[in-house]
Amino acid sequence: MPDSPTRRTLRLGVCGPVGTGKSSLIAMLCRELADRLSLGVITNDIYTDEDARFLRSAGVLDPARIRAVETGACPHTAIRDDITANLMAVEDLEADFAPLDLVLVESGGDNLTATFSPALVDTQIFLIDVAGGGDVARKGGPGITRADLLVVNKTDLGPYVGVDPAQMVSDAGSVRDGRPVIALSAHDPASIAELVAWVIGRLAAHRDGSLHPADPGPMAPHSHGPSHEGHGDHDHDHALAADHVH
Amino acid sequence: MSAPSAGLVAHLLADARLPVAGHTQSATLEPALVAGLPADRIPDYVRLRLRTVTRVEAATAVVALSHQRSGRDLRPVVEAWQARTPSAAMRATARTQGKALLRLVARLWPESAAVHAVAALSAPPRPIVLAAAADAGGLSPVALAGLVGYDDVQTVISAALKLTPMDPVVAAQWVHHALPEVDTLAVAVATLTRPGGIPASGAPQIEAWAEAHAVTPRRLFSA
Ligand SMILES: Nc1nc2c(ncn2[C@@H]2O[C@H](COP(=O)(O)OP(=O)(O)O)[C@@H](O)[C@H]2O)c(=O)[nH]1
Ligand SMILES: [Mg+2]
Predict the structure, then answer these.
(1) CA of B92 to the centre of ligand 2 (A)
(2) Domains of chain A, residue spans
């Protein structure tokens, strides 16, 4: 198996509905991290290379380190049930630019239910944005409730769309059982620093062996009452994730 | 544990649910439709492939199986396939598919000498890897050739359902109608044993579509 517990590279998935800011977040991370980490990017798009071209043109990373994967109109399949094309692309990138520290995998913006298989990525970020409406966070879904990090993006737009970002973050927090939420805006340097610190923390956890890839969905975990709030029942979730890795 | 029957292994290898990134393939149908192929001519497109490019793939697989079973070097088979597959885009796709399939067959048949032999090649294309799976699973040459043809038909038709949606029972009917042609192909190539016998039956129009597709910026499927 090419995969071993000693693999150096952290594979980080970025998913969430179209337009929530996945490509922008990846460009942001490249901009912030490229001088201290060796990076690579894989995009999955509805039309194969739109996102890859956007990221290449952003000039934040050597264009050769940004590769697009065809999804055959099945972006959900490509990151979840048949991850073969993505896994091969990630492995090729890691081999071609060894040693890589971090590979960012952008999902094709499918819908609220699509999340990454833990066999493809070690950890994942789910994005929603304030422009999508305040209800989205409260309604939940596997990515919102159980992705390793939830980003509520574009907080700068709150006043224009009549949404209170702080309320949205608090709603999200209440369905996430203590898992982290970051309120992000490209115009808010403090929030960017918070995101970067989270990624660096995940990389450290990956290196010291304490990061265990977990599946956010699609099954809802049973009996997580409000009494668990603030105390993530992580063992339970890992057991559930293991059940779903066939 | 006893070995499964060759018939069931053939079912397994033909199953679109296998994790070999089959959902990324349209067998060049996507650029064909972009170029103006009418949806109701898709059955003709399937037939054209079975008589041309797919015939090369099926014959290559059968000859590779013969080489595997008689302990002959596989490289001349790969070279014969290359020479008969002039489109670089189609060769690249076949090698990518071969890599995906090899991930799977190495897991299914870790002890197989045939699988080890293809794993030792540099970037073996799909028909060569499929031949190793056929050897490990006990498939006959005609079953292997039929599998190549059947998979090609299903790849075109299932991509058609994404690209030009129709009642899916119509699509299944198209597949059913193409089956005798698959049988004809399988029987015609099943007795081949030498690389020189692989037909040079390319289809310049399909190859040109594949080449154009490889560089088009907006595509859903691989070239
Ligand atoms: N106002 C604002 N717009 C943003 C922010 N992040 C991304 N966007 C914009 O949101 C739109 C969609 O972003 P994109 O990264 O392409 O989303 P994707 O479809 O999820 O990859 C683009 O016009 C971005 O410029 C942000 O923090 N604030
Ligand atoms: Mg994007």
Answers:
(1) 26
(2) 10-208
